[in-house]
Amino acid sequence: FLGNPAGIMSQNIEVCEPPTDSISALEFTPSTSGCSSRLAAASWDRSVRVWDVQTDTGAAIPRCLHTMESPVLDAAWNVEGSQLLMGDVTGKVYALDVATNTLAKIGSHEAGVRCCSMMVPPILMTASWDKTAKFWDPRCDNYIFQLNLPGRAFAADTMNTLAVVACSGQKVLAFSVEGGKKDVWQWDCPSLGATNSQVRALAITKGATGQQPVGWFLAKSDGRVIMQPVQPHIHDMWSFECHRKELNKGTHYDVYAVNDIKMNHEQKTLATVGSDGSYEFWDCTKRSRLMRSGDQATESITKCSLSGNGKVFAYAVGYDWAQGYEYHDPAKKPKIYLRSVVEDMKAKTC
To answer: What secondary structure, in 3-state letters, does 136-196 show?
Structure first.
């Protein structure tokens, strides 16, 4: 699979035993994980599933299945890849030990936990519809500290000591937790495109050079991705349109939501997936599209993930309810696919 990428590049390998309802979270173990690559998926059917992924063949072997009391909205791996940390629609925060398939409650919010993300180990950040972000040590039964958000949490990402949360009301909050000191900054979401469009996903970027975060990409419901810089006087804001179908040349388009985005930090490239059933890869340095999937899925792509080494791309196909219940077809079941992106997500050299 990865040893001979040219032979498999155009193929998407279907993962066995997927959930029975739309997938709400899809996460590979991080690159620092000492175990073999694992992929986790949470679904509205209340299941949480884990597969061991054989990166040489693309095979995914079921490892763990746990049925929750309520659907999980987001999940994140600990740095060792041994625990899956999750938040559900009722506000509870859990840790699932994959080896023993045992569940432990860490704590809770007063409303659904929309975002889970690991910061500097062992700190877990959760952001909720209760307008708070909490920071946890999963080994303890209470949060370390809490920050109030300007609105309900819609999307978030973390990198080392930095956390960024996109909230309702077109607000973006960033905070650093380095050395016991907490610094907080607030921005307005850039007013490009439809002013009432919602942020669906967020990904922090390191920029073209260096290892420090320079900004973040905001994926929006109006088929647009915006790069918002930390320091506008040093790095400029820019955006691109995606997941749109041209009806009349250059004048009319069907516009679809960008449901998820993931950064390949080594290549400085970006993956987006949308309600149109396609995935796209972008070169963040050249600010250009690398490729778009040829055959669109029969339903939306709700989530995506990149393996820790950036070589395998996973995406989940299923109904995202953007067109309401009348367009839901129960006969169409969710699917998860794996694809080698060794060449597809390689940054341009000229």
So the answer is: ECCCCCCEEEEEECCCCEEEEEEECCEEEEEECCCEEEEEECHHHCCEEEEEECCCCCCCC
